[in-house]
């Protein structure tokens, strides 16, 4: 196979890069072993939430954050590029109605009742913004085992808001129709697309609601007809309704994946799922072709002018730590930066403590090309985006999806510039 | 590596992310199947040689989407197929499954008496009797016998003489007994591109037997088919599969599911096996595909079969369609048509198969295309029966666009 660009990895960073490249007129192939983290994580776009204190404005905080973290991917791209990438992304998935901006972080509740800072969220999550305080009610579903409204509400009442506003929250557990003792989020999403089910839910819920309450559901309000489902619930309940991101799999994340996949297809991009990347053909400091193992007993090559590595980090096997303590990037054998010495502290005993190894990943130049120890690009035509980049701690910074979109967008922009 | 290790060992890579469960077309429509992760990597740990702890395994349609979407490389569908075969070996395989899994036999029996056979399968009172006795649903789609075989046509067909390159056609049972015309179109498309097409005698690949848990019989069929193609593969000829599921059997499934990972002959044939559209697209990549397509002002809804996705090569038919002027192509959004080989024929699974396929049928009805194109024959039967829209192999669209039909 041959193309202009091959993007490796189908998570948010890979989908972002591939979509921008395809829309830019390049023949783009996205190759991935399987589906990425969109199916697991909420589609809230966290750009910068903690530094280490709560960040109220990512736009204001980013320049200082980048200056203080020289190894961080945000130190490789400008705050303007981050903003341009997020803005571009919003426009590409109009069906999800993203709201918010980099100027102010929203604070939305999580399934365990934490107040999570995030920059932009799908419209159906926006009414959960806690910053102005107010009265919230969280709705549990009879057989949904990943969402406990009383627990959520109790924790949320303890949340201290910098604005000084107070949150009043309570939970309601519904006895919605059905016999199965354990119903998945996917099944509830389908149930919510049935008018009879919505009627049963609203009939049971409406008499229990109090004035001025905003109503939070687990994020299972429909899949394909989500917008109509959400709007009808607001109309019938006569109160703002919002989704709270719940445990994986992520129904709202699946909506995002489908929207991006459809956009990629419309833009003429190709998606090849299944094969395992096993290496590359290289010459004179460039990668000529990606080599993958598909179903037949032979290697398949994808030749291209540019390659984007969007393979993820340790969790996806893109970066591997073996039992001898060796760390390697598994597709191209690129140098991994930020690996603590064998004698130094690599992991801490406590799960939530700082683990130096967690920041290991690819170091890149200002064009997002992976570099060797001397700072020279390993290959002239290879770019790296998303979680494979080192120097970040997305779970601590609340920066994961923002990094994915910003770096995916930036690398694609670099390639498009080089192509024109 | 031992197949057992390759397949069963992969379950240790399962991180319980549930991505497979969000895609599973069966568990998404019925509580009878609790999902691929549950019956696969999870239940597999409890299968200790004393049988499966869970009979719901039988409701897996073997579409393979779970393996295809897994980001960790877990062989979910393969684990399930092997466990189901073990379960069936223990409890016995119903007569129905033994019958519908033998396509070569069904083809040989039906072809000489095609009018009678076609009348029989189209006769609703008789079909209800069949449903009562052998549990094949009376509404399930049935192919029509052509009354002749593709092999008989091939024997009287003279291949291109002065071609620079030769390929082997793996036409499969469907073309041999039900759609010989499609085989002729494939030969015409390949010859139009200057290729000499060789059509050695060939029988079933064993896939229907495999998916019905009859592994020993499946193994003897795939070994025999391997020998049919081996001499050509050894000479470097490409083997072009017209049936996407049978092609996948040669490429990967037989090796992984039937403990044939170390079969050197099969590995050689696998290395040379291509889906026909995959091959034509590769020709195009090398600038060797003729692109003298005439405008084809029509709308085609394209449905990529689950087994096509299992080739891990994307959707080459879509890329070929993009070369045809004025052809409007819309791809189906839903992953599966429900048929999954012989699954949708079975009386107890027919309703599930129809529920799985419902979004595909609805999209076809909404778009009202001139044609449906799909690489899998059972998908075509299913979609044509459910929507009434003529459903063809992508090669037939190329044949029309080349103007080869006259």
Descriptive overview:
The complex is a heterodimer of chains A (420) and B (406). Chain A is α/β, with parallel strands linked by helices. Chain A contains eleven helices and 18 strands. In chain A, a hairpin with a 5-residue loop joins strand 16 (319-321) and strand 17. Chain A is globular, with a radius of gyration of 22 Å. The two termini of chain A are 23 Å apart. Chain B has helices at 3-8, 19-23, 36-44, 65-69, 76-91, 95-100, 103-110, 114-122, 124-134, 150-155, 172-178, 180-192, 207-211, 215-234, 244-257, 264-271, 276-285, 306-309, 316-321, 350-367, 377-387, 394-401, and strands at 165-170, 195-198, 238-241, 273-275, 299-302, 328-331, 371-373, 391-392. Chain B contains 22 helices and eight strands. The radius of gyration of chain B is 21 Å and the shape is globular. The relative contact order of chain B is 0.12. Chain B has a four-stranded parallel sheet with strand order 2-1-3-4, with helices on both faces. In chain B, strands 6-5-7-8 form a four-stranded parallel sheet. The chains are: A alpha/beta (420), B alpha/beta (406).
Short description:
The complex is a heterodimer of chains A (420) and B (406). By secondary structure, chain A is of the alpha/beta class. Chain A has helices at 12-23, 58-68, 79-92, 123-126, 149-157, 185-192, 195-205, 226-237, 251-266, 394-397, 400-419, and strands at 5-8, 28-32, 99-100, 106-109, 115-118, 120-121, 134-140, 167-173, 213-218, 241-244, 270-273, 276-283, 286-293, 299-303, 306-309, 319-321, 327-329, 382-384.
**How many strands, what sense, and barrel or not for the largest sheet of chain A?**
5 strands, parallel
Principal-axis shape of chain B: globular
- Distance from first to last alpha carbon of chain A: 23 Å
What's the number of helices of chain B?
Answer: 22
Average residue pLDDT of chain A: 95
Number of strands of chain A: 18
Strand content of chain B: 5-15%
